[in-house]
Amino acid sequence: MVRAGDTVTLVSVEGWYRSQILAPVDTAITEAAAGKLRQHLIETQLWVMARLAAQSAEDLDLRQWNICQGVDSRAA
User: Fold this and answer.
1) Which of 1, 8, 19, 66 sits most deeply, having the most CB atoms within 10 A of its CB?
2) Is a pLDDT exceeding 70 seen at residue 70?
3) Domain total for the chain?
4) Closest of 74, 16, 8 to residue 44, by C-alpha
């Protein structure tokens, strides 16, 4: 995750436009998946299913969020 706001978190999706375009996600979804408050979400890595052929962030259809075990070095 790149930036976590009160209501929207900006995420980089690996494999979608070379991870250079950020997708907006409801912060509550990322907090629940990571088990962390938004203040501790930056640099957290999550696994998510996505439509990588999507032409826009709205079409990514992000779902089934899970924390990447053994990757995140920041403690909550």
Assistant:
1) 1
2) no
3) 1
4) 74
